[in-house]
């Protein structure tokens, strides 16, 4: 049975030297950098004592919600004289794509990009992949827990990364008035109360509906995701390729 749910942000930066290069009309010195944001749903089984029954979670579903590609000269990225300029550019790009995470995590991603750039095995034309994931982890246990859920420590979960900015208050979200009960959701999943015709509700970017008081309470959580589909509570239009 499910005993707990946790949300966190995970990122990885890597290059596979053996992969096929992206088509490019530029010089052979160019390296593509692919930025991706996804929603990941994972399952992890624990013992009734709170100890892991497996080493890592099993992945159940991944949904890609943003992707953007830039192409930069690899030799230019390696130059110490241009490092500050390139760093500021990458911080701006990472901040735009992963705009729901804390600044220190954004800078850590950029630091990791330069670690890959400076690696002797990194080559032009092969893409450098920057993958960020909003991970939605469900904990399962076959027996009733003998320890409080909030004491269970999972070492593979990174430090908190999501913003808790006032920008996420419901006053900044779209309000709609239900003139009829033809909406897909007949009730608010947070309070489990039915919607009434004529009531004003909050519609998220993913189109799911909630009572304003309920989503306000939900937004006090450190991870700002839709309670139904787990999409970030921000504009999730698919990113464009540059």
Automatic annotation (TrEMBL):
<dbReference type="InterPro" id="IPR051834">
    <property type="entry name" value="RING_finger_E3_ligase"/>
</dbReference>
<dbReference type="GO" id="GO:0006511">
    <property type="term" value="P:ubiquitin-dependent protein catabolic process"/>
</dbReference>
<feature type="domain" description="RING-type">
    <location>
        <begin position="188"/>
        <end position="230"/>
    </location>
</feature>
<dbReference type="Pfam" id="PF13639">
    <property type="entry name" value="zf-RING_2"/>
</dbReference>
<keyword id="KW-0479">Metal-binding</keyword>
<keyword id="KW-0862">Zinc</keyword>
<keyword id="KW-0863">Zinc-finger</keyword>
<dbReference type="InterPro" id="IPR001841">
    <property type="entry name" value="Znf_RING"/>
</dbReference>
<protein>
    <submittedName>
        <fullName>Putative transcription factor C2H2 family</fullName>
    </submittedName>
</protein>
<dbReference type="GO" id="GO:0008270">
    <property type="term" value="F:zinc ion binding"/>
</dbReference>
<dbReference type="GO" id="GO:0061630">
    <property type="term" value="F:ubiquitin protein ligase activity"/>
</dbReference>
<dbReference type="InterPro" id="IPR013083">
    <property type="entry name" value="Znf_RING/FYVE/PHD"/>
</dbReference>
<dbReference type="GO" id="GO:0005634">
    <property type="term" value="C:nucleus"/>
</dbReference>
